[in-house]
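User: Hello! My lab partner asked me to get a predicted holo structure for this protein. The small molecule is LP7C6HRI, SMILES included with the sequence. Please write out the structure tokens.
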Amino acid sequence: MRVLTAAQMREADRITIEELGIPSLVLMENAGRQVVAAIEALFPNLESRRVAVLAGRGNNGGDGFVIARTLLERVVEVPVFVIGSLSEVRGDARHNLEVLGRLGASVVEIADEQAWELHFSEISQCDLVVDAIFGTGLRQALDGMYPTIVGDLNGSGLPVVAVDVPSGLLADTHEVQGEAIRAAVTVTLAAPKICHILPPAQRVCGELVVADIGIPEAIIERLDGPYVEVITRGVMRSVLEPRDPEAHKGEFGRVLIVAGSMGKSGAAHLAAMAALRSGAGLVTVATPRSVQPILAAMAPEYMTIGLPEDADGQVTPDAIERVLDTASDVIAMGPGLGTGPGVRAFVHGVMERVGVPIVLDADALNAFAGEHARLLAGRDGHDVIITPHPGEMARLLGTTTEDVQRDRVAAARTFAEKHQLHVVLKGHRTLVAAPEGTIAINMTGNPGMATGGTGDVLTGVIAGWFGQLLDAEGASRLGVYLHGHAGDLAMADLGEAALTASDLLTYLGDAVLELSAERTSKGDDHDE
Ligand SMILES: NC(=O)C1=CN([C@@H]2O[C@H](COP(=O)(O)OP(=O)(O)OC[C@H]3O[C@@H](n4cnc5c(N)ncnc54)[C@H](O)[C@@H]3O)[C@@H](O)[C@H]2O)[C@H](O)CC1
Ligand SMILES: [K+]
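Assistant: Hello! Below are the structure tokens for the protein in complex with LP7C6HRI.
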């Protein structure tokens, strides 16, 4: 599902109206009615309730007037308050305001703070508030009487349904600048915007409903400008193909995991098991010599190779040939390698000559901090996927973790475009940025996964799926989705605190099973 900017939304609106010929009043009518449908679905016994509609002077307010008109016959009372000057309501919004007037609805103008104070008690006696004050047209943080209005509403404890965007949020940013309505539900029109998807703004939106108002998907897909999308269950389901009954293990990818050092054998084990639990045909772990027997005893399913090591049990550059000589379809390198001087030269050496796609994580990434970042560049037939957490991303970009977190989309996109590789920027709402600059946002996962080893599992999952899909972007997206979904299933059974990285391995099977079962039973494109 594509995520639009306010400008892209306006353009989709324009194309639908001017080129397709659906009148703007019809879109507004659809918008209002879809919001009412969502309210009816989410708030039972609506007929016995009082709903206050707060409308602004723009088209968001216009949607509010349609909502008020639709609710007039369905609920006890619908007082309407125009926040701002009535005389400034124009165009389609004015049209709908006049219709409302002809129906005899109560419309009160709230032009200043005094008027607000006068009417707030009436509003606070309602059961539900519809926020149609500002939508995508808000250009800067609220000032004047608006912060008071928002503060009073947020303090009232009344449930608020926000139309399109909670008033005060700027659609194109995840930042909350100044006061914003805290909505119980936000019904956004046609497509979600960044503010609905990324925290902290996303948390202000409450439950999100995306309403179809008649703008065709094809118009949304062809819009110019940044391509950001949400990774949906429906799309991930379609990526999973059932296995051919005559399949053999050679068809599911040979994954080489280059990982581990003395004291960090677990990282290699987790990555290797994750690749196997993601369906890899054959998994080999290349690890420092002294770690090899430990790993070999941990699981019978993967093969092991011992690499030259230093006195600390970390790989040395002598190991480069051994890694390059091992047959594989994809390499995952990094988990638990350590940070010794030999590791850096080893990792650089492998990257300079490797001929297969590679997933780089953790200690392998730190070897490319600063000016070494250019060594990461992907090239034809040699996809590079990096899976940094925000701190590693910051070191690669030569900036701070705070800077990365302030605009995660920009950080991931800039690096992916500059070095022509795939960036999986981990954290709440993991992002997948492709070399072309497209961004996919993952919605699965939970804070219980903030525990040692879960990153090693992700590296293995992505490498495992890469071996089958042979598509870096597809494997990264499916990988983050399933990794988070396994975490959600584990959390439901174990809670946040007890969840460990090994539990993700256990639940990866269920995560895949759920998707493929839905695929056979539903076969539809439903997304929650
Ligand atoms: N998406 C669609 O296809 C449809 C969307 N609809 C609704 O229309 C709004 C966007 O309407 P617009 O008139 O462009 O903007 P707003 O209603 O959000 O309000 C803008 C209004 O406020 C003024 N303004 C801007 N910033 C500030 C500020 N900081 N302080 C005070 N005033 C400000 C601005 O000048 C305007 O007058 C969209 O969200 C949907 O709800 C259609 O109804 C259906 C099609
Ligand atoms: K709104």
